[in-house]
Amino acid sequence: MVPWSATVSGAVNISNTSNYTLSDYILTRRMYKLIFFFVRVDETDMIENIAAYISSRFQNSAVIEDIKGSYPKPRFDEDLQIFCKYAFNQKTPEDGFDELAREITYHVGELPLGLKVIGSHFRGLSKEQWPMEVSRLRTYRNGDIERILKFSYDALCDEDKDLFLHIACFFNMEKITKVKELFGHRFKDLRQSLHILEMKSLISIEHTDLEDSEYYESINMRNLLVQLGQEIVRKESVLEPGQRRFLIDYKDICAVVSGHTTITGSVVGIDSKNWLSITEKSFKGMSNLQFLRVKNDLYHPNIISSPGPLTFISPKLRLLDWSCFPMTSLRFINNLEFLVELRMCYSKLEKLWDGIQLVRNLKHMDLTDSRNLKELPNLSMATNLKNLNLERCSSLVELPSSIGNATSLHDLRLFKCSSLVELPFSIGNLTNLWKLDLRECSSLVSLPQLPDSIMVLNARNCESLEKLDCSFYNPGILLNFVNCFNLNQEARDLLIETSTVNFVVLPGKEVPACFTYRSHGSSVSVKVNQKLLHTSTKFKACILFENEVDNETYYFDLDTLCVYTKTNKDCILLDNKGEDDEVGIQKRGLVSCRIGSEWRFSEWYPFITDHLYIFEVEAKEVTSTELIFYFEIFDEYSKAREIKECGIIHLLEHHVDDEEKMDTIEKEPKVHI
């Protein structure tokens, strides 16, 4: 590009910028247009990111200042309103605070985040405290955002400062439940400390409550505050990173794990975003290490400088999260008494450790895509383990019988464990297990008795599965045996007979004869005993889909299946919660598959031919001895799909009061049909 010098009308004078080009000038002006737009919409992170980009690309500060000066800054009154909103919960200062509020606003400058944080700091202070805090604020340079933000940090108690640094260096954007588990008893009252940081605008608590998803809260700290916290930690020991609490900078981490710097017991957490060159003694001197996270990918693997297993000496390790771990085993000098989460996805591990480890605090274990893993360790002490994810551990042949001691386990994922032949009988001891994912366990031949707590059993594409040495008594269970064509007749009969308000899916070419009323097409006529008039009664339904012409696979959700009678006035089919609200009536008896008052499965099922889809419906206030059931179902594109056959059998006869609400589902007797 050719250097140039000129005066641009209506802009800035750049006659002294010999290394500055027209395209540079235009780009910079556009950047500052973005900055002042984001100032207006209060997007502080975007402002700082753009400003940092400009500063890194263009070194001529005079030009940058000229361009900044060519745009009007936000009005002082707008800045004052932002400060007052957080200091007084109103747009203007309270009586007697006008002069001090204006001085603070002028001193902080025009960045909304600084005004929020300082305003939150002054909120609730007495009139006598304000002058003292303003005097302290005067010692910070005008517009120095880092020092302005640190003003609020300095006012925190030691414990809240510690929590702030933990979040800035390691736990930003994490769920509060997970943070609480990992911290243990480190903080006296974690909720109260988080509340204090939120009230001072140092963090925000994000609430997530998506449809069909669990509700959770997560911690969000703005980028400028993250940078502040990390800089505070860096200054703990500028020249010796091994003496800091947290290691985040990649060069510092490399220096520490390679032994090129002094290591003390100060290091609490390491968070590396890149590969590391490690030896078996890389973490040997870190006796206080609690949180270790190494994130990298398959294309940039870690480098092993020695063949031995990696040695951990810290007895306080609570989190070990290492993607693409390069070694075949781990070695721990001390018991893992405090380990809460072990996450080693895409690792080269063949085994974890030998013998029995005291892992009574272990709650989450994720070894996804560890395709060389041949065995799991003894889990007899893992009595608090909640989640075990072994997806695509294709070399794993069996689960240890000690898994039966993990009685807190509620989610077991074995997707594509293609070498797994059977499950241990001890799995029946897992009385809190509610989800078992066996999809594409292609070598699995049989299932033992499973705990009654299971709500979701997905065995799709278990092509070798033949026997089900179990029964299913949970009335809310969802059973998916799609493409399990080797199931013997006894197993098929068991699934057909299972009583559940959710779906049962299994291979089949026609509606079984046990369904009293059968018909081709999407409707079937049912005779009802006259004694059942004006009562509520339950039915079990079975449908098969017609062959699709385009050979594409389409999916449907439980909420897209409707069952209704010839006229709604004659009979209303309830959802499985037992309610006939306005929406349900308008949709002519939507089968929404609810469990109690809160469980609701959002599984998407494929439209597959030669499969039976079995579910229950309930009719309320039967007014005719002949009911005609119509079935209507839509795919994800809201297109109605054709039904080849359908069938109905009458299950239960009972009266339901108009005001009855089923808050919980009690066990129902097994139905023999």
UniProtKB/TrEMBL annotation:
Describe the location of the C-JID domain by residue ranges: 506-654
InterPro entries per the UniProt record, alphabetical: Apaf_helical (IPR042197), C-JID (IPR045344), Disease_R_plants (IPR044974), Leu-rich_rpt_3 (IPR011713), LRR_dom_sf (IPR032675), P-loop_NTPase (IPR027417), WH_DNA-bd_sf (IPR036390), WHD_ROQ1-like (IPR058192)
Give the organism the record lists: Arabidopsis thaliana (Mouse-ear cress)
What is the name of the protein in this document? ATP binding protein
Q: What residues does the Disease resistance protein Roq1-like winged-helix domain cover?
A: 159-237
Q: What is the lineage of its organism?
A: Eukaryota, Viridiplantae, Streptophyta, Embryophyta, Tracheophyta
Tell me the Pfam families matching this sequence: C-JID (PF20160), LRR_3 (PF07725), WHD_ROQ1 (PF23282)
Keywords for this protein: Leucine-rich repeat, Repeat
GO BP, sorted A to Z = defense response
